Amino acid sequence: MLNIEIDGRKLEVAPGSTVLEAANALGIYVPHFCYHKKLSIAANCRMCLVQVEKAPKPLPACATPVTDGMKVWTASEQAVTAQKGVMEFLLINHPLDCPICDQGGECQLQDLAVGYGGSSSRYREAKRVVFHKDIGPLVSAEEMARCIQCTRCVRFGQEIAGIMELGMIGRGEHSEIVAFVGRTVDSELSGNSIDVCPVGALTSKPFRYAARTWELARRKSVSPHDSLGSNLVVQVKGDRVMRVLPLENEAINECWLSDKDRFSYEGLNSPERLTTPMVKQAGEWKPVDWQTALDVVARGLMDIVGRHGPGALGVFASPHATLEELALAGRLVRGLGGDNIDFRLRQVDFRGNGHAMGIPWLGMPIAEVGTLDRVLVVGSFLRKDHPLLAQRLRQAAKKGTQVSLLHSVDDDWLIRIAHKAVVAPSRIPAALAGIVAAAAQTRGVAVPEALAAIVPTEAERAIAASLASGKKPAVLLGNDAVRHLEAAQVHALAQLLADVTGATLGFLTEAANTVGAHVAGALPQSGGMNAQAMLADPRRAYVLLHAEPEFDFANALAARSALEKADLVVVMSPFAHGASYADLLLPVSPFTETAGTFVNCEGRVQEFQGVVRPLGDTRPGWKVLRVLGTMMNLPGFDAESAAGVRAAVLGDTPDVRARLHNGTRAAPVRPDATAVPIERVADVPIYFADPLVRRAPSLQRTVDARPPRARMHRSLLETLGIAEGGQVKVRQGGGEAVLTAVVDAAVPPGVVRVAAAHPSTCGLEGLSGPITLEKA
Amino acid sequence: MNAPSDFLDYGPDAILMAGLTGSNWRLKDYAARGGYEALRRILAEKIPPEQVVAEVKKSALRGRGGAGFPTGLKWSFMPKNYVGDKFVVCNSDEGEPGTFKDRDILRFNPHAVIEGMAIAAYAMGATRGYNYIHGEIWETYLRCEEAIEEAYAAGLLGANILGSDFSFHLHNHHGFGAYICGEETALLESIEGKKGQPRFKPPFPASFGVYGKPTTINNTETFAAVPWIMRHGGEAFLDLGRPNNGGTKIFSVSGDVERPGNYEVRLGTPFATLLAMAGGMRGGRRLKACIPGGSSMPVLPGDVMLATDMDYDSIAKAGSMLGSGAVIVMDDTRCMVKSLLRLSYFYYEESCGQCTPCREGTGWLWRMVHRIEHGQGRDEDLDTLNSVADNISGRTICALGDAAALPVKSFLRHFRDEFQHHIDHKQCLVAPYV
């Protein structure tokens, strides 16, 4: 340990610490701009100059390593003179028009100028003009003359997002931040560059000039999107959500947010919001009051259950719904005597059901992902499905973690990949079996007879060797692995691999409340029908909780057809949808307008409160379900608050960890070797993944929200005789779609990548499996 | 223009540049002058590397690039037991206005640099080297390429040099003409293919240099002096100059003299002698001012200069620095405002823009001097100039900020009345040179 004295106060710090870190530890604030705790040190702003004993000139605190016995003064005359000098330089070319700057009121430069700037400027020369840039729909670079060249945004891109989309061109006074010529900033983490920008150069495009920071209330919340459960500060003016910022939580999202978490709030103010209950009468939609609407629902459900039995009712719930909503929906079905409820809407293989030893989860705390030394990710569009988890793996890989992947597309995760096996979806179990066999060989353990004769490929051996050589390995199953046609086998094989290599088995899990939905019991518990079965054998009545059949199901065509045939379809959603098949539309709150709970992938129970009043006649989903249950005299609907519902589900100690377990008792079988001529792989694109983000206009203008195309290997395109960019007719099951064909080297031969959850592809049946193509 | 022979007359005391004709730069010519003898002897006699460093220390050879740091001491900073490649880098990115000596060395005596680098590599256990050549001198770069080829062919570079177990691979790297790349860490960035911007130190290149490997960077002239030192002994080199100022130094004399050019003289030679070698003042005019060490060093009034000897310590005592040895001579027709304007523009144009004081300050300085020169000066400008220069110096990542500030401060210190005249009368104090 090293001793240092700062401003007369003594401290012991670890070797390698900087003066700034030591000052922070003492609670001494040293002014700075370019320094950011998560980014590399640039020492270019020179604002943190401090006086150091025996140093002939002031030194930058951010970059000066502590030496033993060092004495530092952060506010001595020498230090403050230097700091003020730097501030003057920063301001000479910076526009001094804070009242018309979007950053005004939350600007580091403005704040520090109060302490270190002059009351007027000595600079009488012409000011520098830097032209504005268009770098995409999310980040505004309209005011680049405000840039102080701290390069935080550049370092963020290089180091955190993993891709350098912004850089500094020019020299001296002509230095400016630009994107590549004609390109935009497309990273799924781009919004963080707004947060790291200490001035008004990079600002939020959707929020631009919408409000002043001091007009906004700051309220805590939890992201309803991916399984991380990022902590949010939702900023509210009146009853409108104006903006979302990260709430720092080192254990979850650190200080970052994905763009989906940050900009999806725009969907809350979508014109598609449902503001009053609606009933379809004789084909006409009529607004009604809640009493009437719930009366119709209660009577309708009782009637159908009375006539056809409780099994006639099916509930599809979204894993983006709250724990409370999911629990009460389950209680509703079971109160009526049924058990047909499911949230696993994109899953197709339920054969593993009876074998699961607990609720699937990440298998470790999120923060531990960064400490793994060997990771195999199976079946995941990692970067787009879990942007911040991918970020953690990216940092780990830089420190030496070997990240390998087994998947059906070779997307660039911007992570250094140690080994990879990219095979057609139907080959995933075989490849996994190959890795198991190779790992068993390495470790000298026997494999089950079913896998005995397998000869692993080179890539499979390499992955196995990597995993087997680790001290802290993990096998992580992504969303695509769970949606696989042989998901139960993939799970069984992954578990075997984890056993053989001593790895932790984890599920990345699909949505904000996937684990919570398990906890809440929003899936069959006593022989009820799963999501797949409820479509294969259509029910008389359906309740849709936050789920949209067109986009949220594995088989959108089957979902729509089942719903259209049903006698009664109740849609509970913040958004008006399903006009063709629904009988009632009940406006229930999105996450900002209700109290609720999400349980994230690591099993962390995160409660949140509503941050604004519900829009129009919208009511929190749990309240609607509670009234409905009470009207039907069902048991278990007494709780008068979300907390009460939560307590009934979780008990007094909201700890679900005891129920989490990734084990399966299913035994691996020899993988099927039947070749599929052409098969589909489907990603659920990041900005189509749930109802809220689909309605966020700015996100819908990004590159990631471009309409799906039929992406395939050049060889396949040539076999089909289609020119690149030509139209291709895609048929899957009874559905078809006409798409633009493009060459994608990331897709293996014999595979077509057609994204799901989009109007142009929701006519196709299934997210994977055989698919036929012909020239359109 | 001078005649070629005239051009290559570096003076009677020249050792490094002695006997050069302009065409005797090849390996065989260098060998005939005793070239590569030092390297051969070191390898043949297996002289311990520490002894080489000790000899260089004894010679009091100081860095010829500008800072004048003792070379032997710098060499001793290289980690001894480092596992992996170590590098020596030659800074031939000669870009300081007024300096044009390294170009001559590389054109007319390139093997001296190659041998010097090889000896340095041997002394520091380095296995690889780069010679970073300024971007705007094409012929020089091509010549260095030829010279390296010759050295490789003769087994003087590459693996197992002269059959010993010492290997040293040397490459030329042609820059793009940015002044900032003469700053050693910006030079390293540039070698790595990055934008030439200085690094923050620490870590210093000796522990984290090119590609993160231990690296020692010396100026061309420094390396070129090494073979002579090893051949004749450190003592002999020291004796050529003065204590703490060993050897000879090439001065690039430019400006208002009769015979501008490079002159190699013993350190400690009176300025008047150097001036006389350069043919004296042009047209017999009065010496008004002189920048003794390249554009980034403080200017000195003529009378101070004439009382000064040309070595590190004497010039420092006189209030400037020897720097790279670029002697810019100005006679009484020179307007000091216009001269400073030219210098200020250079630093404004060459600032890399990385850190705030230099990026913002150099433009401010230039704009103020520009206004004064063009009759738009204000009374407060001179104090502001001084204060802005103060706010730049010592606050930047590299020395370019200081280099921009020093001329401003010294021009104002010695010639404030001329600036004041420009402000008061909107015109120049001196008659324009015709």
| Molecular shape of chain A | globular
| Percent in helix of chain A | 25-40%
Helix and strand pattern of chain B: HHHHHEHHEHEHEHHEEEHEEHEHEHHHH
Ranges of chain B where pLDDT stays below 50 over 5 or more residues in a row are 1-5
Distance between the termini of chain A: 71 Å
List strands and helices in order, with pairings.
The complex is a heterodimer of chains A (776) and B (434).
Chain A: E1 2-6, E2 9-13, H1 19-25, E3 49-52, E4 59-60, E5 70-73, H2 77-92, H3 108-116, E6 133-134, E7 139-141, H4 152-161, E8 166-169, E9 176-179, H5 192-196, E10 203-204, E11 217-222, E12 231-237, E13 240-246, H6 259-263, E14 278-281, E15 284-287, H7 290-308, E16 313-317, H8 323-335, E17 341-342, E18 374-378, H9 382-385, H10 387-398, E19 402-407, E20 417-422, H11 428-443, H12 458-468, E21 473-477, H13 479-482, H14 487-501, E22 504-507, H15 514-520, H16 531-536, E23 541-545, H17 549-552, H18 556-565, E24 568-573, E25 584-587, E26 596-599, E27 605-608, H19 621-631, H20 642-650, E28 679-681, H21 691-694, H22 697-700, E29 710-712, H23 714-720, E30 727-732, E31 735-743, E32 751-753, E33 769-770, E34 772-775
Parallel strand pairs in A: 1-5, 16-17, 16-23, 18-19, 18-21, 19-20, 21-22, 23-24, 24-25, 28-32, 29-31
Antiparallel strand pairs in A: 1-2, 3-4, 3-5, 6-7, 7-10, 8-9, 11-12, 12-13, 14-15, 14-25, 26-27, 28-33, 29-32, 30-31, 30-34
Chain B: H1 4-7, H2 27-32, H3 37-45, H4 49-59, H5 71-76, E1 87-92, H6 101-108, H7 110-124, E2 128-133, H8 138-153, E3 169-174, H9 184-191, E4 215-219, H10 220-232, H11 234-240, E5 248-255, E6 261-266, E7 269-270, H12 271-277, E8 287-291, E9 300-301, H13 302-306, E10 309-310, H14 312-318, E11 326-331, H15 336-350, H16 356-373, H17 381-392, H18 400-425
Parallel strand pairs in B: 1-2, 1-4, 2-3, 5-11
Antiparallel strand pairs in B: 5-6, 7-10, 8-9, 8-11
Helix pairs in contact in B: 4-7, 4-11, 6-7, 7-10, 10-11, 15-16, 15-18, 16-17, 16-18, 17-18
